[in-house]
Amino acid sequence: LLVEKGAELESKDSYGWTPLSWAAENGRGAVVKLLVEKGAELEFKDSHGWTPLFYAVCSGHEAVVKLLLEKGAELEHKDNSGLTPLSRAEVCGRNAIVRRLLEKGAKFGNET
Q: Where would I find the ANK repeats (predicted)?
């Protein structure tokens, strides 16, 4: 409802998170889909350099990861630590997501 009434899609909270970041972190696939369809920025970075894909990856929300990838989320984006979503998936122990990212073309060894 707020989106339909013109709410700012890129508004940030005190952590630098957007509504899309929160939806991805909490596995809210329908909200992620709505926000992306309304024009939310897939590659918006918070203060750690994390995009919504990083949050979905580390939280283990496979369906949201799949949705973000289908909508064009960047596989090789690096956070402020020089890690990619694939590296974060490995660090967070998200093996199914590691496989999905590899299937989509992510590569190990792209870290700084």
A: 15-47, 48-80, 81-112
